[in-house]
């Protein structure tokens, strides 16, 4: 039996990974919930967000608390990028079959991946932790960096903010109505086109923010886009696409299965997560906390 | 203008390639023929049954690993290994498909993607059997000594011999696919594509037919994967990665999914474009992404669909239109 502190450290590691995934996956889920588009480019937005954060930190200067400004700037830039993509291109595909939407977002993955290579090269890049959170603490014998603790608080708070916006405000009511019946909402006078654009921007914002905030923990490499989209995809499928708490649960499960799976079956932890996803899809295709269609 | 027997023309053109004497041409032609089968197998689902599978690489990979393992580790002969690759892929298609056909539209696509990721994870991690991340290098060529003693083909290189074998096998697969889509079974698939609900009402077992199509598509994807593993001289986990599943979709859209030969034309265009573009820039994905977006917006019928439209417009008016309805499978996309 391993030490408790070791297990606790493992748990915290899984929790940190889960919180990042939650942030990213909730963006993916938000977009799917309203637009019914599975956005493969979500991972690319995450990657570009990470590169932009690195770029902004370089411009601002690596010392001091410029990191926060860089992260916010990067997330806002990605929201803008998402808005342009939705407004100019994606919106013309809503009436077409899923295949066209899937291939469109996949084409974006191809294009943005190369754009990132042209702009930032293929070298690993990294960003140092902001000085105010550079330290670390001992919790139950496990060492945990303050930055990770901060992430564990921040990511759920941001997502909770979005949840509040969606469930408890007038704006949120319009968005939820758009997810249910686009046409009826339009006849009631709401500008559905902009609701879609807004949701796509909000989802993209979360992807960009996730990418920016992950930079002090993970180095930025080409290929992080296609890897993260698969992880986020698994999370939302387990939890239930379009379900907020489902995504939260899915991320927690994913993080812990991966983190402890490595201890039990060192080779098969990725496999364990995939099997979990398949099991959920077979038993409850709409996810653990999702609602069946119709 | 009399009807040109395009099938025969293309087959003869294919047979001529080794006589050009260029290692490069043979290489490109082998690549095209194998991936054309991959894309054609997918189109049985996409264009004929109306199912968007985003996990077709799983069956390609399973075929490749099965055949590669049998030939390399067991030393089994080529044809039984190839067949085993197809059958194993079909068996997994039956298992996964059983669950997938219960879902519709985007959820179907997601479940196929999910199963493909599981196959990828197994191939990536099961070091003892699949070689894990390192893959399965140096898969041997089939025994082709007998071809050296043939009259005309004797002087060819091994690559040319393998190409001819591939060409014959893929031609047989295409003939089988043609038979399948023209059979009553194939017609039922197009009925399901056009209106699954109505098909259900007239007593068609929709899920059963969809599953059968899924298994047949898996079988041919497995055959193409097995051939590709040998051609590539190795089988690697990216054969099953989700980005690989996008390739036959792109080829099909590029060539046109409403036409029987569309995916094969798309595969040829895809590979020739790849060769041309990568010779002067490393940013092939960027170019492909751009081409794809232009296609999606401007030419949703792909190359074959667009050509067909142009030919129909140019056709002289005084030629009597045929009285029988156009072939179902040739109708543009899904209704």
Key phrases:
heterodimer, A: 294 residues, mainly alpha, two-stranded antiparallel sheet, 2 strands, 72% helix, B: 335 residues, 71% helix, disordered C terminus
User: What would you call the shape of chain A?
Assistant: globular
**Poorly predicted residue ranges of chain A:** none
Helix content of chain B: over 70%
Q: Please indicate the percent range of residues of chain B in DSSP E strands (runs of 2 or more).
A: under 5%
| Whole-number count of domains of chain A | 1
Name of the CATH architecture of chain B = Orthogonal Bundle
Q: What is the number of helices of chain A?
A: 11
| Strand order across the largest sheet of chain A | 1-2
The CATH topology assignment of chain B is ABC transporter involved in vitamin B12 uptake, BtuC
Q: Bin the helical content of chain A.
A: over 70%
Q: Can you characterise this structure?
A:
Chain A is mainly α and 294 residues long. Chain A has one domain (15-222). Chain A has 11 helices and 2 strands. Chain A has a two-stranded antiparallel ribbon with strand order 1-2. In chain A, a hairpin with a 2-residue loop joins strand 1 and strand 2 (142-145). The longest helix of chain A has 32 residues, at 4-35. The mean pLDDT of chain A is 85. In chain B, helix 4 (78-100) runs antiparallel to helix 11 (206-231), helix 8 packs across helix 9 (184-194) and helix 12 (242-255) crosses helix 13. The A-B interface holds A 36, 38, 89, 92-93, 96-100, 102-104, 106-111, 113-115, 117-118, 226, 230, 233-234, 237, 267-268, 270-271, 273-275, 277-278, 281-282, 285, 293 and B 46, 52, 54, 99, 102-103, 105-107, 109-111, 113-115, 117-118, 121-122, 124-127, 242-243, 246, 249-250, 253, 283, 285-286, 288-290, 292-293, 296-297, 300, 334.
Short description:
The complex is a heterodimer of chains A (294) and B (335). With 294 residues, chain A is mainly alpha-helical. Chain A is 72% helix and 3% strand.
């Amino acid at each position: 039996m391993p030490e408790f502190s070791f297990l606790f450290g493992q748990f915290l590691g899984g929790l940190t990974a889960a919180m990042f995934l939650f942030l990213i996956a909730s963006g993916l889920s938000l977009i799917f919930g309203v637009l019914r588009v599975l956005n493969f480019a979500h991972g690319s937005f995450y990657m570009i967000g990470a590169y932009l954060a690195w770029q902004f930190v370089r411009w601002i200067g690596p010392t001091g608390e410029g990191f926060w400004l860089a992260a916010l700037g990067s997330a806002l830039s990605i929201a803008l990028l998402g808005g342009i993509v939705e407004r100019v291109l994606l919106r013309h595909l809503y009436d077409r079959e899923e295949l066209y939407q899937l291939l469109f977002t996949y084409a974006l993955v191809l294009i943005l991946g190369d754009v990132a290579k042209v702009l930032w090269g293929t070298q690993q890049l990294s960003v140092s932790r902001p000085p105010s959170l550079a330290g670390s603490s001992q919790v139950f014998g496990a060492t945990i960096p303050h930055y990770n603790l901060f992430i564990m608080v921040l990511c759920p708070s941001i997502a909770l903010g979005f949840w509040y916006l969606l469930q408890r405000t007038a704006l949120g009511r319009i968005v939820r109505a758009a997810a249910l019946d686009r046409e009826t909402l339009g006849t009631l006078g709401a500008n559905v086109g902009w609701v879609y654009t807004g949701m796509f921007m909000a989802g993209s914002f979360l992807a960009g923010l996730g990418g920016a905030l992950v930079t002090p923990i993970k180095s930025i490499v080409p290929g992080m886009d296609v890897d993260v989209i698969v992880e986020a995809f698994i999370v939302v499928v387990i939890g239930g696409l379009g379900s907020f708490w489902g995504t939260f649960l899915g991320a927690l499960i994913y993080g812990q299965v991966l983190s402890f799976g490595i201890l039990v079956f060192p080779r098969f932890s990725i496999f364990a997560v995939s099997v979990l996803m398949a099991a959920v899809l077979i038993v409850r295709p709409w996810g653990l906390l999702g609602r069946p269609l119709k | 203008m009399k009807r040109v027997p395009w099938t025969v023309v293309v087959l003869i053109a294919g047979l001529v390639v080794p006589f050009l004497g260029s290692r490069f041409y043979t290489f490109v032609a082998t690549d095209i023929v194998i991936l054309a089968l991959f894309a054609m197998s997918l189109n049985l689902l996409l264009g004929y049954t109306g199912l968007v599978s985003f996990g077709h690489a799983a069956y390609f990979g399973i075929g490749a690993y099965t055949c590669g393992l049998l030939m390399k580790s067991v030393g089994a002969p080529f044809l039984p290994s190839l067949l085993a690759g197809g059958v194993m892929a079909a068996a997994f298609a039956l298992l996964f498909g059983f669950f997938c056909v219960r879902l519709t539209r985007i959820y179907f696509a997601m479940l196929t993607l999910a199963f493909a990721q599981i196959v990828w994870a197994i191939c990536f991690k099961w070091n003892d059997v699949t070689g894990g991340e390192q893959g399965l290098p140096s898969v041997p060529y089939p025994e082709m000594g007998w071809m050296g003693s043939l009259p005309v083909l004797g002087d060819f290189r091994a690559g040319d011999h393998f190409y001819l074998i591939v060409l014959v096998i893929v031609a047989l697969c295409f003939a089988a696919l043609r038979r399948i889509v023209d059979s009553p079974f194939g017609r039922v698939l197009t009925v399901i594509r056009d209106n699954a609900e109505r098909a259900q009402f007239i007593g068609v077992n929709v899920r059963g037919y969809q599953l059968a199509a899924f298994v047949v598509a898996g079988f041919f994807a497995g055959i193409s994967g097995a051939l590709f593993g040998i051609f590539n001289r190795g089988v690697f986990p990216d054969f099953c990665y989700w980005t690989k599943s996008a390739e036959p979709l792109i080829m099909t859209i590029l060539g046109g999914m409403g036409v029987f030969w569309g995916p094969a034309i798309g595969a040829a265009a895809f590979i020739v474009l790849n060769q041309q573009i990568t010779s002067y820039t490393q940013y092939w994905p960027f170019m492909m992404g751009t081409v794809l977006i232009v296609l999606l917006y401007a030419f949703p019928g792909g190359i074959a669909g667009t050509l067909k439209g142009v030919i129909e417009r140019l056709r002289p008016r005084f030629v009597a239109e045929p009285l029988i309805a156009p072939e179902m499978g040739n109708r543009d996309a899904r209704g």
